[in-house]
Amino acid sequence: MIDASLFSSALTALTPILFAALAGALCQRAGVFNISLEGSLLVGCFGAVAGSWYTGSAWIGVVVAVIAATAYSLILAIGSITFDGDPIVLGVASNLLAVGLTSFLIRTVFGTEGSFSDPTLRGLGQFGPIPGQSLLVYLSWLAVPALAVLLYRHPWGLRLRGVGERPEAASSLGVDVTKYRYGVILAGGALCGLGGAQLALGSVTLFAENMTAGRGWIAVVAVMLGRAHPLGVLLAALLFGLAEAFGFRLQGIGLPQQATDAAPYVVTLVALFLSNFKRKKGQPA
Amino acid sequence: KDPAAQNAAGPALVLITPSPVGVNDFLKLAVQGIEDSAKKHNGTQKVFQSTDPASIQQNLAAAVREKPAVIVAVGFNFADAIAAEAERNPEQKFLFVDSCTTKPFPNVTCAVFREHEGTYLAGAEAGLLSKTGKVGAVVVLDAPQFHRYSIPFGKGAEKAKPGTTLAPLFIGGANPFNDPARAKALATTLAGQGVDHVMGAASAAGNLGVFEAAKQGGFFAFGVDANQCPASPGQVVDNVIKRTNVVIGDGVEAILGGKTGETKSYGVKEKGISLTGLEPDAATSQCVVASHPDVLAKVGELRDQIISGAIVVDDPAES
Amino acid sequence: MTPPNPDAVSLRGIVKRFPGVLANDHVDLDVGAGEIHALMGENGAGKSTLMSVLYGLHRPDEGTISLHGKEVSFGSPAQAIDAGVGMVQQGFALFGGLTVTENVVFGSEPTRRGLLDRKAATARVTELIERHELRLRPGDRVRDLPVGLRQRVEILKLLYREAAVLILDEPTAVLTPPETERLFGVLRTLAGEGRTILLVSHKLQEVLAVSDHVTVLRDGRVSARGRTADQTAAGLAAAMTGREVDLDRVHPAGSPGAAVLEARSLTVPGVEGKPLLDNVSLTVRAGEIVGVAGVAGNGQAELSGAITGLLKTGGEIVLKGQSIDGPSVRARRDAGLAHVPEDRAEVGSAPTASLRENLAVGFHRKRPLVRKGFLRRKAVDDHASAIIEAYDVRGAGPTAAMGTLSGGNQQKAIFGRELTHSAPFLLVEQPTRGVDVGAIENIHARLVAHRDAGHAVLLISAELSEILALSDRVLVLFEGRIVAEFTKDEADPHTVGLAMAGGAG
Amino acid sequence: MTRVRLIAVPVVAALVLGAILLLATGTDPLAAYGAILSGAFGPDGIGDTLAYAVPVAGMATALAIPLRAGMVNLGGEGQLVLGAISALAVGLYVPGPGLVKVVLALLAGTLAGAAYAALAAVCENRLGVPLLISTLLLSYPAMSLAGYLVRFPVKDAGSSLPQSPQLPEGARLPELDGVTTGIFLVVAVIAVYAVIDARTPAGFETKVTGWAPRFAIYAGIDRPKLTVRLLAVSGGTAGLVGAIAVLGFPYRFIDGALITPQYTWIGLLAALLAGASPLGTLLAAVFFAALTSGGFAMERATQVPRELTAVLQAVLIIFLAATSGVFKRKARRA
Ligand SMILES: Nc1ncnc2c1ncn2[C@@H]1O[C@H](COP(=O)(O)OP(=O)(O)OP(=O)(O)O)[C@@H](O)[C@H]1O
Ligand SMILES: Nc1ncnc2c1ncn2[C@@H]1O[C@H](COP(=O)(O)OP(=O)(O)OP(=O)(O)O)[C@@H](O)[C@H]1O
Ligand SMILES: [Mg+2]
Ligand SMILES: [Mg+2]
């Protein structure tokens, strides 16, 4: 049941989720509730494939993915910060927009539907010692300590956390709240772009409608479970990835797919219960 | 609006698909079939693409309002909707491909496939080629209809080389028909368990994930519906092809000729189902199996046995 | 015209408008270096606005700002901070989740190789704490600190930024007399170092005690200014309100009747073993105001939570002979409890909802607002109009959003709503925090009238003078326990103040 | 007047943006918009629009109910599916005359959805998992369970697909011109919601909680209890919508059939857009349904991709959020 390929497939499964969850954590720290991760990932997927296709370079594809997802996250940024719109409305709407827009673009740009791929479409290729993993996988792991340092060892991180806790206080101390919030949302968009690029050019080499299949929502849950700390978020994503990979194994021993599908969600829910239960016990009232 | 359509004197045909055509080989063949038919009968043709059960119903109703000579619907998702429309519109002729209404209707002609025969043959190839004695399948959903791509694969492999075992995995999840990353992860998982030949029935996008896993993991895969070997040359052994275009051509012709209400089943014998490797253009197909003439010879024998009735492949969907 | 020795701060003709409000109307203000300058005025007179203009939070519509004779213009607090202006805002600008050091260096952090230099930060903060005897621990989380210490963190922030001009907006609103004394000690030292201090306060005695000069604003205009030594409390009050105010009114004692509320052994556990509320028992009788004095953070919030049911606690509470320690907030209210909470904006009202709806809350299940299960629109309107009229709630009428009312009017509306219940027992918390002298007079009178109508009142206030003016009995809460009890006659500022500081335990 | 402008400006902006997209793809925008309009409201299209509006408006109302108290239920899909499968099971297995079966099935669907959503509320109250997360997470296992049921114990013997058998003739909700008679139930639910919201203490308490949660608790509103109640009503409504869906054509549960059309998400959007006000939610839901069915009609008529309407819809909401006050989180305080 447990072998190297379990971890390898868990690793593959969790990378896009990890990128998105780090984006979510960053936003959460600055007091922005970001549920548009699913849409950002999907836009990243599309950007990656389009970029790679038109330039013939997967890495330019990654850059395009980052630009596209960052641009897309402007919707949340402008809507929620400049116009003070409700981030949940904007999140739900922009997720639907991502599905509609990428489906629309796949028809108008690639002249096809459902999915786009081509044998000549460049993927990221393998990198490093672990089979089947792209450079972006390692980058996602590096992003964890990098963000932890940024949040807890860099002046920006201190200000960002202050902005998240009491924006009006931060602003009275000369910190430009708007700038920080725009910063985290756009940086989150960029991270989701990387996640989308990994999904569309790292995991596989194609774009399919709605190919994120709920990974952005899992990321939202991971932010919660990981308490918006980069390390916690990593653990949460890892837990989910392992539970999913483990679910595949359970199919192998004869459980119906409909039963194993639920495994990662149930595991996550139980983990949430346990972590909250512990916290409650340690901290009365 | 389309001037060509106005001028055409022949019958009007409408094809309704259950999901966007795009790169879906099965649906692409269906579109090809309707186009060929329209050309052949000097008629017109339209394609309505649906996305979900609600739009299937809408599109079917819209098609009925246009009163074309034949409405062609492909995909099992249409069963209930066609039954309802056929009952309500006894004058309207339907060609229902890939499935049939539970109750027969005089105005509904059905064309179904026996994919399991093709899968069985593909399994035989896998059994012959497998070094590990383990074959697998990555299939969209854990349901009898889709078991036609897994169970017969194991049976064929076992027949070709006794002792070969099958490990099927199903995609499921939030988006089973469009989750290539998950399809790839499942194929990789199978490889981790020692499987070296994987049948891919993971949807149009999903199969590409399976092929990529094969490329990375150095194992082999099988495609479905059309020749998918060019998508990943050197990795795809063979394909279970479904000649939807031919079947639609036949069906439309029969209906226009006045024969309606039948159900015709297409298998290896009727040449509705085949393997790319067994086709005349196998050599140029870029399929791995083309370079294994010995395997093809043995599989050819099995095919003949199926045609003659010496071998009967159980249909998992019947159980 | 230009004085030879320019003032440290000089505001000339400052005008600041908000939609529909002229907050500052050609205000001039000059403050010399080393001076403590008090700024007074009623609620909404424009004090905070003026100070915000000086601190770069608002841009003036007209007028100029000069520092040491040099005209400046601030687009943001960052620029003001750079120019040596620091401000402690009304209601603090601290981050509870961060440590003292982090709060202090926030916005101008020392760095080493691009990263936060925690060592340097801690060293600098420790040094400042020691030099000014602020008695803080740099590593403590601010959310764990009592209000008095938080105030010191704010001061520390200004010192860290080496502000030459310190603005303090109502810094003593939440402090006890000893804490206030300590703060003033620090302010005097800072002034002695040549810094300029601008102090906004409603408290006449404090202003008289600590400031060198005073400016009074009324309706956005300067209504009086001069050397503090030349002022009297009554004169300042008149300048603020435009009328005579009876400042030192101590209300006559009530005539207590039967016990209405009896609480026994109320306990709220704390994080590290030490309970936040420790075995507190008290009784409040009909026709009696019982005042709970104490430094904020000594269990007041827990006591209130225990009585209202907003906090789950151990112990027993009996209201009018009926045990209510199990039941919900609603059951307690039904049993005869009314409550004016400390936090008017978030707890006591719904700022986005209309005044009418805010006033209906609590009455929305009872006749006459409800008949046959349905809310009657007319009854809801009448109810609101009645309270607005009776309590003189001024604003744009019953359909105006609660949040657009001035603070004083919000307080009146909430008072009106809760007093209208005519509940046997009323819990009032900090009824006059941040409220100007005119409004205080009004609120106090209403509380006494409520008591005289035979209701029991428990008054929790950090304002010792308020406790002494109103209470028939005074309880002192210290570290979660009641450490002293005084009758109206026994209670004087000195002894009660001593008990509040733990001197009676 | 200003309200009209608040809505009109974003609508026009979205239309203009859509027109630019259309011109970019070489299509006459007027023809495309005309096709959407006639496809949505023309004699042939209105039925499609209504058929689509029933589940969307139903789900929108289901999600609006807790949203009124500021609680976001992201688990509508699970509740919808669970309601559908429960109703189906009752319709299939409970003996009795048709009408009784239909009533029991509707009831079972409602109860199943209600119980499941209430469970999410309990997760928040007792285990501290925020409602947003608990509803979302619980949704997936419910969908898996329904998939499992129609794959094994409740499978359609005649079919090889993950779908249930059809309900017997008597145990169905009849259709009127392709629209389920369940539409009356949905309208009734919305009417009841509107009255409760505007005229009862319960509706008032819900709104107070939405305005200011701490104020509501202070005023004696028991938030945990209210959460359970609102979620139960929300899930119950979602379950009822599911029950109506399976009791209507094709009279069976097909795995995934209630999920792929995105009824839940579009419903949520409608509810959010309308600030959960009962009539506003209904209007928004019908509007979205019209856009969707009009989109398909447009594609059939002009070959313009139907996704255009999805884009229009989302762009419209984003413009609305950006230009009007309807989504403002909190009115600023003095
Ligand atoms: N941001 C703002 N927007 C609109 N009006 C404001 C704003 N800030 C202050 N005001 C209004 O300006 C006037 C002056 O307010 P300011 O806060 O300066 O009063 P204050 O003297 O500090 O009162 P208090 O004693 O209550 O603190 C008031 O009418 C107030 O409502
Ligand atoms: N942010 C705001 N937006 C709109 N109107 C405001 C705002 N702040 C205050 N107002 C209005 O400005 C008027 C003056 O408010 P202000 O705070 O000066 O009241 P006030 O006369 O000082 O009363 P009080 O003594 O009760 O505080 C009030 O009627 C209030 O409704
Ligand atoms: Mg005021
Ligand atoms: Mg002020």
Automatic annotation (TrEMBL), chain A:
**Native organism:** Amycolatopsis umgeniensis
Report which residue ranges the record marks as coiled coil.
none
Source organism, top-level taxon: Bacteria
- Location of this chain's protein in the cell: Cell membrane
**TM regions (residue ranges):** 51-76, 88-110, 130-152, 217-242
Q: How does it sit in the membrane?
A: Multi-pass membrane protein
Molecular functions per Gene Ontology? transmembrane transporter activity
InterPro entries for the chain:
ABC_transp_permease (IPR001851)
The answer, when asked if Transcription regulation is one of the entry's keywords, is: no
Q: Does the keyword Kinase apply?
A: no
What are the alphabetically sorted keywords of the record?
Answer: Cell membrane, Membrane, Sugar transport, Transmembrane, Transmembrane helix, Transport
Classify the main location. Answer: membrane
Q: What GO CC terms are in its UniProt record?
A: plasma membrane
Pfam families this protein is in? Answer: BPD_transp_2
Question: Under which name does UniProt file this protein?
Answer: Simple sugar transport system permease protein
UniProtKB/TrEMBL annotation, chain C:
Record SMART domains: AAA (SM00382)
The molecular function terms of the Gene Ontology recorded here are:
ATP binding; ATP hydrolysis activity
Q: Which UniProt keywords apply?
A: ATP-binding, Nucleotide-binding, Sugar transport, Transport
CDD domains in alphabetical order: ABC_Carb_Monos_I, ABC_Carb_Monos_II
* Residues in ABC transporter domain copies: 9-244, 261-504
Q: Give the matching InterPro entries.
A: AAA+_ATPase (IPR003593), ABC_carbohydrate_import_ATPase (IPR050107), ABC_transporter-like_ATP-bd (IPR003439), ABC_transporter-like_CS (IPR017871), P-loop_NTPase (IPR027417)
Keyword Nucleus found: no
Q: Does the keyword Nucleotide-binding apply?
A: yes
Pfam families given in the database record: ABC_tran
Top-rank taxon, per record: Bacteria
| Protein's name in the database | Simple sugar transport system ATP-binding protein
**Native species:** Amycolatopsis umgeniensis
From TrEMBL, chain D:
Q: For this UniProt entry, what is the primary localization, expressed as one broad class?
A: membrane
Q: Where does the chain cross the membrane?
A: 50-67, 79-96, 102-122, 129-150, 178-196, 230-251, 263-296, 308-327
Q: Name one GO cellular component term.
A: plasma membrane
The record's subcellular location field reads:
Cell membrane
Write one Pfam family the protein is assigned to. BPD_transp_2
Superkingdom, taxonomy of origin: Bacteria
Alphabetically sorted, this entry's keywords are: Cell membrane, Membrane, Sugar transport, Transmembrane, Transmembrane helix, Transport
Membrane association type: Multi-pass membrane protein
GO terms of molecular function:
transmembrane transporter activity
Q: What InterPro entries does the record tag this protein with?
A: ABC_transp_permease
Mind telling me what this protein is named?
A: Simple sugar transport system permease protein
